[in-house]
């Protein structure tokens, strides 16, 4: 066996190393719980604003209550997951981040797409789509596979 054979069998990037994916599933679940606790807390002041708006518009503004959660959650993930850190505050707390497989940085559009695909896939499969992470080598979910992303531990 030559040295070239051994070298080519070794992982080439951080994303290919098994250590990058150790504990990602449980960290991802905990990060989700932290992030959506933050989003729910952010909904409180916005809910009060919608309440006042409803009074000022004789009830028409109260229709925004139905869209309040997405109106708060989408900018939250756009500017955290799609930001410089490539992670939401919950993800940073648990030491994980979102990486693109092509090595390019994430952007707000990718952050929103990642979140929307997660919620749509979860709604269509009653949440069973998260079981996909048990069968993929990089512990990816459907939105990761479709968008060419992977969640890894921070270095």
UniProtKB/TrEMBL annotation:
InterPro entries: Pra-immunoreactive (IPR051791), RDD (IPR010432). Its main location: membrane. The keyword Transmembrane helix applies. The keyword Transmembrane applies. It is a multi-pass membrane protein. Residues 26-147 form the RDD domain. Keywords: Cell membrane, Membrane, Transmembrane, Transmembrane helix. One of its GO terms (cellular component) is plasma membrane. The chain crosses the membrane at residues 29-56, 62-82, 116-135. It is found in: Cell membrane. It comes from the Bacteria. This is RDD family protein. It comes from Aureimonas flava. The lineage of its organism: Bacteria, Pseudomonadati, Pseudomonadota, Alphaproteobacteria, Hyphomicrobiales.
